[in-house]
Amino acid sequence: MSDKVVKQAKDLDNNFRYEISEKIGAKSLLKCIQCGVCSSGCTVTEYVDLQPHRVVASCLLGLRDEVLSSNAIWTCSLCHRCTERCPKNVDYSFILALLRNMAVKEGNVPIEYSATINTIYNNGFVIPYTGGMKTTIDRRRNKMDLPEIVGPNLDEIQFIIKETGLGNLIKKAEEDEK
Amino acid sequence: MEFALYLGCTIPLKMPHFEKAFREISEILGITYKEMEGAGCCPDPVATQSLNIDTWLTLGARNLAIAEKLGLDIMTVCSGCYETLKTVYVLLEENKAAFDRVNAILGKLGIEYKGTSKVLHFAELFSQDEMLEKIKSKVVKPLDSLNIASHYGCHLIRPSKIMQFDDPERPESMDKILRAIGASPLEFAAKLECCGFCARLQDEIGMNLVEEKMTELKDLDKEVDGMVAVCPACATQYDRKEKMISRKSEKELDIPVLYLAELIAIAFGVDTTKLALKQRAVKPTKLMEKLKI
Question: N or C: chain B end with fewer CB closer than 10 Å?
Answer without folding.
Answer: N
